User: Fold this.
Amino acid sequence: MSVAYDVLNDDDTYHHGNLRDELIAAAVDVIGREGVAALSLRALARDLDVSHSAPTRHFKNKADLLSAIMEEAYEDMLTTTVDAGYLAGDNPAHRLRAMARACMRWHVDNRALSEVIRNPDVSRTAGRNVKEVLAAFYIHSSRAILGAQGQSRNPDRPVEFVYLNMIVSVVGAASVLTDPVYVETLPALDADELIDDMVDHLFPLKD
Amino acid sequence: MSVAYDVLNDDDTYHHGNLRDELIAAAVDVIGREGVAALSLRALARDLDVSHSAPTRHFKNKADLLSAIMEEAYEDMLTTTVDAGYLAGDNPAHRLRAMARACMRWHVDNRALSEVIRNPDVSRTAGRNVKEVLAAFYIHSSRAILGAQGQSRNPDRPVEFVYLNMIVSVVGAASVLTDPVYVETLPALDADELIDDMVDHLFPLKD
DNA sequence: AGTTAATGTGGATACTGACAACATGCTATG
DNA sequence: CATAGCATGTTGTCAGTATCCACATTAACT
Assistant:
């Protein structure tokens, strides 16, 4: 260091050390509090005490940062719901219900990430990774659906439609449950009750 | 006009005449092609051959413009689905199904408007009008639901949950059917088929 | 030690949103 | 018909931002 008396921050290194991950974390924080539109690369750099163009080394531009967040989010969502399926035991119907519930809960519990992956301006720039994760999601889900169909009240419904209906319900629930307009408009909206009701209706058990 | 030979544009008036509506139309056009993020007040002004701050007279800022679009969109959505209900005849179950279908179709047919009303950054600034429209929507829908419950396979399901499930399905279908990631990932996705299937499952008829 | 790639800095440019002061045309009222 | 008031549009300006570039510092590897 050229300055001899660097007393105030002696552990200050030129390299930040973990800028990429901290950028993502800070971005998710901002998005959760103020929304995607309020995201600013310069503001992020300021928060992390780093020059205004340091983020460029890790993310080509803002869309690139959001893409990275979207990728991590999709992976997290996938593992969370697949894990929940395995934890639910061997009964296929129960497993499927657990997956749907977990996926909805993930969206509610990860508002910021959910907002990112549901943002058309972000998903427009989705790369191959994201599509592979979604393909894997389809594999896992359709397997669970096929296993559960025998116990369902709608055994003849095509798998693709059941899958799509599940995705639609998950995404829609995420939208409605996190949208201030709906939350303020609707009568006494309890997320868990709604999720249970929707899962019951999506995958009704015979007994 | 101070310039005597104003040959090129003799019908050019100082006042644009209909700037507000054309701003909205141009904005919806841009959003439909490039998304909400690509919207720029200055670009809109350029497109309409108007000074860069002329839009300020009609919309205090960008959020204000988007709010106005959202209001019009919600009203249009409401009237479209309510009208479809009345056109469907007297059978309550058929009426409800027609409303759900029309609402989903509205979203698919009005991608740009749907994208606006589903954008959290926009709905965060929603005014009282929007909430009143949604309240009216709830009134209309719950009336239809109550009428249809006797014919449904789930007569005991609470009205609020049926309504919420309908909203969730509509919003979710809009998200999935317009999201490039899902459209490219999913196997042969036909919007009309999916809508029919989901409505059938949402409001099953006895016969 | 010396080379090289990765990472961070500072400056320059262009675009954007927002504001303020001014210009213009419409309209109502005397 | 004059003129005052108002709605609308214009020009000028400023701060914040994204993005690109040349350069500095560090780490890693030979």
In short: Chain B touches chain A through 48 residues (CB under 8 Å).
